[in-house]
């Protein structure tokens, strides 16, 4: 393998883009759900500390969401520039799946994001909470479609090959819910929630060191040691199931 080989350079470029991009979905998926929990607690208890935390973390979410969109656009272009033959052969399958992610998940997130960020005083608390829930749902749907695409590339199912040598869908249910998809989706969601837990808990710990009397810091930090333990255990079990699935689907095991 030569470093100046076009294939190697394409791999390095795409690996860098993916590695940079995944940081932001890992934060935004879990943080969107955390924002929904904070707003629900504010509506249920009336304590302004939950609203203060919501306003604090929604700014972080907005930055992560924006960076995820920008880096994701670059990555989608590289499918056509770096892997043009793959895109031509597998495009009839992966193209619609990525289109579904844009038409459903991204439009849902983008449509309600402005309401969540700027609309509390304009639409009222209940409708604003609905917008926050829709943003959280959009992040989940985005992970659903992207992980379906990624899983199909590893364990393809429900396809045929046409006269031009292209992979074409024959059973969309089998394409979407391919053999490794449930394990990869669960693994990604748990990883995103665990990432958010460490970020929120670490931020709370830092503020507690600076001022132990702040109630917001205790709210951020107190639940997370238990949550970390539960999430780490669940993530380990999910990873073990995923490894067993990979071993089962591997060509070497056939």
How would you briefly describe this protein structure?
The chain is mostly helical.
Label this structure with key terms.
254 residues; mainly alpha; two-stranded antiparallel ribbon; 2 strands; 83% helix; elongated
Detail the topology: elements first, then pairings:
Elements (H helix, E strand, L loop, with lengths): L5 H40 L2 H34 L2 H35 L1 H4 L1 H30 L4 E3 L5 E3 L2 H5 L4 H30 L4 H7 L2 H26 L5
Helix pairs in contact: 1-2, 1-5, 1-7, 2-3, 3-5, 5-7, 7-8, 7-9
Describe the structure.
The protein is mainly α and 254 residues long. It has one domain (6-253). Helices cover 83% and strands 2% of the residues. The protein is built from nine helices and two strands, in the order αααααββαααα. The chain has helices spanning 6-45, 48-81, 84-118, 120-123, 125-154, 172-176, 181-210, 215-221, 224-249, and strands spanning 159-161, 167-169. The chain has a two-stranded antiparallel ribbon. A hairpin with a 5-residue loop joins β1 (159-161) and β2 (167-169). The radius of gyration is 21 Å and the shape is elongated.
**What is the overall shape?**
elongated
CA-based gyration radius: 21 Å
Name the poorly predicted regions: none
H/I helix tally: 9
Termini separation:
29 Å
């Amino acid at each position: 393998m030569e470093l100046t080989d076009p294939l190697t350079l394409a791999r390095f470029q795409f690996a860098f883009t993916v590695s940079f991009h995944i940081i932001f979905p890992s934060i935004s998926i879990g943080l969107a759900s955390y924002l929904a929990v904070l707003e629900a607690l504010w509506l249920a208890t009336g304590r302004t500390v939950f609203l203060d935390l919501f306003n604090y973390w929604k700014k972080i979410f907005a930055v992560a969401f924006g960076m995820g969109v920008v880096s994701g656009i670059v990555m989608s272009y590289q499918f056509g520039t770096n892997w043009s033959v793959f895109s031509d052969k597998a495009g009839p399958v992966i193209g619609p799946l990525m289109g579904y992610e844009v038409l459903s998940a991204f439009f849902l997130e983008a449509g309600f994001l402005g309401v969540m960020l700027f609309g509390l005083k304009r639409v009222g608390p209940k409708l604003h909470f609905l917008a926050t829930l829709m943003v959280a749902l959009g992040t989940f749907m985005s992970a659903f479609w992207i992980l379906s695409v990624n899983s199909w590339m590893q364990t393809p199912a429900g396809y045929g090959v046409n006269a031009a040598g292209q992979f074409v869908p024959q059973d969309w249910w089998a394409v979407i819910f391919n053999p490794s998809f449930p394990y990869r989706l669960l693994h990604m969601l748990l990883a995103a929630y665990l990432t958010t837990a460490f970020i929120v808990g670490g931020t709370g710990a830092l503020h507690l060191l600076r001022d132990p009397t702040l109630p917001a810091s205790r709210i951020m930090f107190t639940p997370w040691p238990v949550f970390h333990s539960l999430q780490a255990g669940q993530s380990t079990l999910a990873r073990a199931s995923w490894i067993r699935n990979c071993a089962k689907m591997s060509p070497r095991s056939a």
